[in-house]
Specification:
268 residues, alpha/beta, globular, binds nicotinamide-adenine-dinucleotide
């Protein structure tokens, strides 16, 4: 298949549904093969249903329908051994990794920062910051060894650019990703591996389109999902398209950038 990413291999976390699934499909539409994983089980502090095994199978089906290859496994981004093993398996299958989409994440809510429980804080930092670190760490040595350069995109949030009442732990993790990205961008520049963050506003995925999140977002963020452009929520593919551009040759000199894909939310 000809495409902007023909011959490339992408490693996508949180690929069972939502943005991760859209990234996998969109990257495949541009010619990439995919190594994908998702936890496919419920975490204790997450107040909405997380992905299940059937969701990841559907991602596999969608990729295979496009006549491309995917290695998909159930794994927890916090599990170093599982993530490293999947990367090894994927590289054995495809021979390389060119693109990393560290997308897996959770959200939970509290009235304010000082109401957060230890469990909410710890699980958030472990998944949304440490899990991203571990995802990237697993892939980087293979990318360096292959010598092909590459593109790493960490999924942050508008909460990685602004304070947001009710989700201090989420905002802390998402701001933390910017520090990780800027440092990696410097460390990996000599290898022509670029590292950027994307910062979506509200996206139409099961993370926010569920009864619990919808009610809490309204209460706690006081209409904070309001964008400058006349759109309530973006679609997952809007974020995927930014990632395709960042990861293609068109983005070859873009690194160290915190890119809002946010309909102008962050400037308000
Ligand atoms: N939806 C939004 O409004 C929005 C806005 C800004 C940023 N984000 C971020 O976008 C990313 C994707 O979220 P989404 O909107 O697609 O939500 P989603 O809940 O549909 O998808 C997230 C996926 O990550 C998986 N996951 C969670 N923890 C994991 C772990 N420890 N290991 C492996 N997989 C794990 C989930 O099972 C799920 O399939 C997240 O990082 C989220 O914080 C979302």
């Amino acid at each position: 298949m000809a495409g902007r990413l023909a011959g490339k291999v992408a490693f996508v976390s949180g690929a069972a549904r939502g943005q991760g699934r859209a990234h996998a499909v969109r990257l495949v539409e541009e010619g990439a093969d995919v190594i994908a994983f998702d936890i496919c089980s419920q975490l204790e502090t997450v107040p909405y249903p997380m992905a299940v095994s059937e969701d990841l199978k559907e991602t596999v089906r969608l990729v295979e329908e496009l006549d491309r290859r995917i290695v998909a496994r159930e794994a927890d981004a916090r599990d170093t051994a599982a993530v490293n093993a999947l990367v090894d398996e994927g590289v054995a299958e495809f021979g390389r990794i060119d693109i990393v989409c560290a997308n897996a994440g959770i959200v939970s809510f509290a009235e304010n920062a000082w109401s957060l429980s230890d469990e909410q804080w710890d699980e958030m930092i472990e998944v949304n910051l440490t899990g991203v670190f571990k995802t990237v760490r697993a892939a980087v040595p293979h990318m360096i060894a292959a010598g092909n350069g590459g593109s790493i995109v960490l999924t942050s949030s508008t909460a990685g650019l602004k304070g947001m009442p009710g989700i201090a732990h989420y905002a802390s993790a998402k701001h933390g990703l910017v520090g990780l990205m800027r440092t990696l961008a410097l460390e990996l520049a000599p290898h022509s591996i670029r590292v950027n963050t994307v910062h979506p506003t509200g996206v139409n995925t099961p993370m926010v389109v569920n009864d619990v999140s919808a009610a809490l977002l309204d209460d706690n963020l006081a209409g904070g999902m309001m964008n400058a452009l006349p759109v309530t929520m973006l679609e997952p593919v809007d974020i995927s398209n930014a990632i395709v551009w960042l990861s293609s040759d068109e983005g070859r000199y873009v690194t160290g950038v915190a890119l809002p894909v946010d309909a102008g939310f962050a400037i308000k």
